[in-house]
Amino acid sequence: MILYSVQQLMDVFIPLNVNHSPNHRHMFSDQYFFLFFFYRTAFGMFLALNIR
To answer: What gap in Å lies between CA 23 and CA 1, rounded to an integer?
Structure first.
């Protein structure tokens, strides 16, 4: 379920991110989306631990 929503988000965001170079589109956008998702999740966990 979570992986499916992540795949949906990637399907939505990847064409909007980089649309000028179709050769480097997947590698470039996947890397940036993974970094964004990782930092957002880590920041959310950090906030959740600090609130307690």
So the answer is: 30
Angstrom distance (rounded) from CA 41 to CA 22: 29
Range of the domain at 33: 2-51
pTM over 0.70: no
> What are 10-24's pLDDT values in tens digits?
666 555 555 555 555
CA dist 7 and 12 (Å) reads 9
Helix or strand holding residue 19 (H, E):
none
Domain count, the chain: 1
